[in-house]
Amino acid sequence: MEITPQEWLDGLVGASEKAELRQARVQVSDSRELDLYTLIAGWYQHVRKMRADLPLPDEDRSVWGVHDLLAALSLRDFVERGTGQLEAGLAETAGRATGIADEEFLAYTEKDDSRIMEIVDDSITVGSEWWWERVPVSGPIRREIDAIRGRLTE
Question: Rounded CA gap, 133 and 113, in Å?
Protein backbone atom coordinates (compact mmCIF):
# COMPACT_ATOMS: atom_id res chain seq x y z
CA MET A 1 0.00 0.00 0.00
CA GLU A 2 1.34 3.39 -1.02
CA ILE A 3 1.74 6.03 1.66
CA THR A 4 0.01 9.39 1.42
CA PRO A 5 2.04 12.57 0.96
CA GLN A 6 1.17 13.50 4.54
CA GLU A 7 2.43 10.15 5.87
CA TRP A 8 5.60 10.64 3.82
CA LEU A 9 6.17 14.08 5.30
CA ASP A 10 5.27 12.93 8.82
CA GLY A 11 8.07 10.37 8.50
CA LEU A 12 10.55 13.18 7.87
CA VAL A 13 9.54 15.76 10.45
CA GLY A 14 8.85 15.59 14.15
CA ALA A 15 5.58 16.63 15.78
CA SER A 16 6.86 20.07 16.81
CA GLU A 17 8.29 20.72 13.33
CA LYS A 18 4.99 19.63 11.78
CA ALA A 19 3.15 22.10 14.00
CA GLU A 20 5.53 24.90 13.03
CA LEU A 21 5.20 24.08 9.32
CA ARG A 22 1.41 24.15 9.76
CA GLN A 23 1.73 27.64 11.26
CA ALA A 24 3.93 28.98 8.45
CA ARG A 25 1.48 30.56 6.00
CA VAL A 26 2.20 31.29 2.33
CA GLN A 27 0.09 33.60 0.17
CA VAL A 28 -0.86 31.56 -2.93
CA SER A 29 -3.37 34.01 -4.40
CA ASP A 30 -4.86 37.38 -3.57
CA SER A 31 -7.39 35.75 -1.29
CA ARG A 32 -5.83 32.47 -0.19
CA GLU A 33 -3.06 31.24 2.08
CA LEU A 34 -1.85 27.70 2.60
CA ASP A 35 0.43 26.31 5.26
CA LEU A 36 3.91 25.16 4.35
CA TYR A 37 3.27 21.60 5.53
CA THR A 38 0.43 21.29 3.00
CA LEU A 39 2.55 22.87 0.25
CA ILE A 40 5.52 20.53 0.75
CA ALA A 41 3.23 17.48 0.84
CA GLY A 42 1.49 18.84 -2.25
CA TRP A 43 4.78 19.22 -4.16
CA TYR A 44 5.64 15.62 -3.32
CA GLN A 45 2.17 14.48 -4.43
CA HIS A 46 2.48 16.34 -7.75
CA VAL A 47 5.95 14.90 -8.37
CA ARG A 48 4.66 11.37 -7.74
CA LYS A 49 1.60 11.83 -9.96
CA MET A 50 3.65 13.12 -12.90
CA ARG A 51 6.07 10.23 -12.53
CA ALA A 52 3.21 7.70 -12.35
CA ASP A 53 1.81 9.14 -15.59
CA LEU A 54 5.02 8.58 -17.59
CA PRO A 55 4.09 5.14 -19.01
CA LEU A 56 0.43 6.00 -19.61
CA PRO A 57 -1.03 6.71 -23.05
CA ASP A 58 -2.35 10.16 -23.91
CA GLU A 59 -5.84 8.67 -24.25
CA ASP A 60 -5.92 7.83 -20.54
CA ARG A 61 -8.21 10.51 -19.17
CA SER A 62 -6.41 10.52 -15.82
CA VAL A 63 -3.08 11.76 -17.19
CA TRP A 64 -1.85 15.25 -16.54
CA GLY A 65 -0.81 17.72 -19.20
CA VAL A 66 1.41 20.74 -19.55
CA HIS A 67 -0.89 22.97 -17.52
CA ASP A 68 -0.70 20.51 -14.64
CA LEU A 69 3.09 20.78 -14.87
CA LEU A 70 2.71 24.57 -14.67
CA ALA A 71 0.59 24.16 -11.55
CA ALA A 72 3.18 21.84 -10.00
CA LEU A 73 6.02 24.26 -10.74
CA SER A 74 4.00 27.12 -9.26
CA LEU A 75 3.46 24.97 -6.17
CA ARG A 76 7.23 24.50 -5.95
CA ASP A 77 7.59 28.30 -6.04
CA PHE A 78 5.25 28.59 -3.04
CA VAL A 79 7.30 26.00 -1.16
CA GLU A 80 10.44 28.02 -1.84
CA ARG A 81 8.80 31.26 -0.75
CA GLY A 82 7.54 29.69 2.47
CA THR A 83 10.84 28.01 3.29
CA GLY A 84 12.60 31.35 2.85
CA GLN A 85 10.47 32.81 5.65
CA LEU A 86 11.47 30.19 8.23
CA GLU A 87 14.12 30.34 10.91
CA ALA A 88 17.29 28.46 10.01
CA GLY A 89 16.67 25.12 11.78
CA LEU A 90 13.14 24.70 10.50
CA ALA A 91 14.16 25.90 7.04
CA GLU A 92 16.78 23.14 6.97
CA THR A 93 14.16 20.54 7.88
CA ALA A 94 11.75 21.83 5.23
CA GLY A 95 14.61 21.92 2.73
CA ARG A 96 15.51 18.29 3.41
CA ALA A 97 11.94 17.16 2.77
CA THR A 98 11.59 19.34 -0.30
CA GLY A 99 14.95 18.08 -1.54
CA ILE A 100 13.69 14.48 -1.55
CA ALA A 101 10.78 15.46 -3.80
CA ASP A 102 13.14 17.59 -5.92
CA GLU A 103 15.46 14.61 -6.45
CA GLU A 104 12.56 12.49 -7.65
CA PHE A 105 11.49 15.29 -10.02
CA LEU A 106 15.06 15.57 -11.35
CA ALA A 107 15.15 11.80 -11.96
CA TYR A 108 12.50 11.89 -14.69
CA THR A 109 13.05 15.35 -16.12
CA GLU A 110 15.75 17.01 -18.17
CA LYS A 111 16.96 20.55 -18.66
CA ASP A 112 14.97 22.40 -21.29
CA ASP A 113 17.27 24.89 -22.96
CA SER A 114 14.40 26.14 -25.12
CA ARG A 115 12.59 27.23 -21.92
CA ILE A 116 9.27 26.09 -23.36
CA MET A 117 7.46 26.77 -20.10
CA GLU A 118 8.03 30.50 -20.63
CA ILE A 119 6.22 30.18 -23.96
CA VAL A 120 3.37 28.14 -22.49
CA ASP A 121 2.95 30.69 -19.67
CA ASP A 122 4.39 34.10 -20.45
CA SER A 123 4.10 35.17 -16.80
CA ILE A 124 7.25 33.11 -16.12
CA THR A 125 10.27 35.37 -16.23
CA VAL A 126 13.79 34.58 -17.29
CA GLY A 127 15.80 33.86 -14.18
CA SER A 128 13.09 31.71 -12.64
CA GLU A 129 14.21 28.91 -10.38
CA TRP A 130 15.77 25.72 -11.74
CA TRP A 131 12.52 23.72 -11.71
CA TRP A 132 11.05 26.01 -14.39
CA GLU A 133 13.78 24.81 -16.76
CA ARG A 134 12.90 21.10 -16.42
CA VAL A 135 10.52 18.98 -18.49
CA PRO A 136 9.75 15.26 -18.32
CA VAL A 137 11.93 13.12 -20.59
CA SER A 138 8.89 11.13 -21.75
CA GLY A 139 5.20 10.63 -21.11
CA PRO A 140 2.03 12.59 -21.82
CA ILE A 141 3.32 15.94 -20.59
CA ARG A 142 6.44 15.63 -22.75
CA ARG A 143 4.40 14.67 -25.80
CA GLU A 144 2.19 17.71 -25.29
CA ILE A 145 5.26 19.93 -24.92
CA ASP A 146 6.74 18.45 -28.10
CA ALA A 147 3.46 19.14 -29.93
CA ILE A 148 3.56 22.77 -28.76
CA ARG A 149 7.16 23.07 -29.97
CA GLY A 150 6.12 21.58 -33.31
CA ARG A 151 3.35 24.15 -33.73
CA LEU A 152 5.78 26.95 -32.93
CA THR A 153 8.19 25.90 -35.67
CA GLU A 154 5.53 25.54 -38.37
Answer: 7
Q: Look at the alpha carbons of 94, 35, 41, 83 in this order and tell me if their dihedral is positive or negative.
A: negative
Q: Do the strands 109-111 and 134-136 form a parallel or antiparallel pair, or are they unpaired? A: antiparallel
**Helix spans in 15-63 (H):** 15-23, 36-53
State how far the Cα of 123 lies from the Cα of 119, in Å rounded to an integer. Answer: 9
Cα-based distances in Å from 24 to 4, 15, 41, 118: 21, 14, 14, 29
pTM of the model: 0.93
CA–CA separation, 61 and 120 (whole Å): 21
CB 139 within 8 A of CB 88: no
> pLDDT grade, residue 126 (50/70/90)?
low
